[in-house]
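In practice, a research group might receive sequence data for several interacting partners and want a quick structural hypothesis before committing to experiments. The following worked case mirrors that situation: the sequences arrive first, and a predicted assembly follows.
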Amino acid sequence: MEIPYTVAERPDTGLNNVKLGIWLFLASEVMLFGGLFSTYILLRVGAVEWPQGAEFLNIPIGTVNTVILIASSVTMVMAYASLKLGDFAKYKGYMLATVLLPVLFLCIKGYEYYEKVSHDHLPSHSTFLAIYWTMTALHGLHIIGGIVVNSYFWGPGSKMWHTKPAMFENRVEAAGLYWHFVDLVWIFLFPVLYLL
Amino acid sequence: MSGSAEEVRKHIATYKKIAGALAVGTVVTVLASYLDVSVAIGITIALVIATTKASLVANYFMHLGEERSQWLMVSLGLTAVFWLVLMLVPLFTMSDNVGVHKTLPNANAAVHEAEEAH
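A structural hypothesis for the assembly, expressed as tokens:
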């Protein structure tokens, strides 16, 4: 049995099921991270003393990672636009960049984590470090998930382009929506943890 | 995103402009953290800049501005409302401190370093 409305819009929702599904998933993700941001604010305003992010974190490294994630968002949307233009070779190039840039992000993040561990700056050290580890690690898991999905659409999953191009475009669009959301979360995480 | 190849190319030109705006926004975010302001104002400035950057990503990269589905608008509208409530609830606990001079620890860092050097 074929799943309906994977490409065509449903008359009642005005969206295909792929897009509606990913948006509802992202709405739940907004509340997941929203709860953690709210927790951060509550801990922050309730604390007698709160360290400035730069006491523990490296702002230049955080800035570089922010630029890397924004760049990967740009390559993701360019990959999707390349599909819309029917340029599969360009799609592959942009998608490869979308996979490699977050790998670089994770390498830099791994270095930061290594520095924290070597200085015994573990979650048990302070409330600030506890919320830092929790939020960045959860975000890191989302990055890993995105890398896995985008790698599939760059590699074996891209064969669908030759048989069902419209459905493949929809899949890449959904993966892109998720990836932009991961970028969005970091846009908030960076100033909150590193700069305030 | 939908439309002809010409429209897609227009989108691509917009993506490049948005990429530049996001890069500038990142620099502004870092610079704004060195302003000599109270903690509440500092957090507000950071969140306003972050929200501006986020809205650019949502509107242009996620094409939210082009969506016309009422189902989507209602779902995301409700999400936005509840997200805002989540953010505001803890801020209300410090509403009596707004305006109290309590600067961010890194404010005037360069000035302090220069004074210590003397």
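Before designing any experiment, note the following. Chain A touches chain B through 53 residues (CB under 8 Å). Residues 88-118 of chain A form the longest helix (31 residues).
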